[in-house]
Design goal:
Elements (H helix, E strand, L loop, with lengths): L8 E5 L3 H10 L3 E5 L13 E5 L4 H16 L5 E2 L4 E4 L2 E4 L2 H12 L4 E3 H9 L7 H15 L4 E6 L3 E6 L22
Parallel strand pairs: 1-2, 2-3
Antiparallel strand pairs: 4-5, 5-6, 7-9, 8-9
Helix pairs in contact: 3-4
Amino acid sequence: MPALTDRIKFIRWPAEAGLRTVYRRQGIPCLLVVEGGALPPICTAPSEDWVRAPASREDVEARVHALRQRAYGRRTPTVDSTGVLSFGTRSLTVSSTQAELMELFIAHFEEVVYRSELEQQLARRVPAPTRNALDLHIMRLRRRIAAVGLGIGTAWGRGYLLEPTPLEQAWSEEGSPGMTYGSQER
């Protein structure tokens, strides 16, 4: 397994601007090294930072350290007021109803959230939600959040729990004992 610093890419800016998009899509953290008199990029993703060349070794190490902390140090997902769900280096937008359900899941990350709690949360948005309405929202959330490395497991007879999952295995047949991921039901 490579060290975390091996996963941080250095990109000459603006000469290698195309690589920025490639690495951003792959969720690979990047330090953009701004050349000469070029304007610095606007870095809004937690997986990006920039430094102007020439930079001292200490400055580069400090930026790499901060980038590593932002990219790999975040082990709990977050959802902001605009519906952007972030986990690790990846983020995506969710609907307002999904954001409210995710807030409950995040508050109890890697713990069981009882079905009744989720139904109460859903009732704030949907008048008199049916059992099927919650199941439908959970199914859609599972599909949506797999892209950021999260899965919603089923704790039979109790509720659901939000857990990190390897991106490659988000829809696999294997999971924790008693848990299912994706659209499969045992």
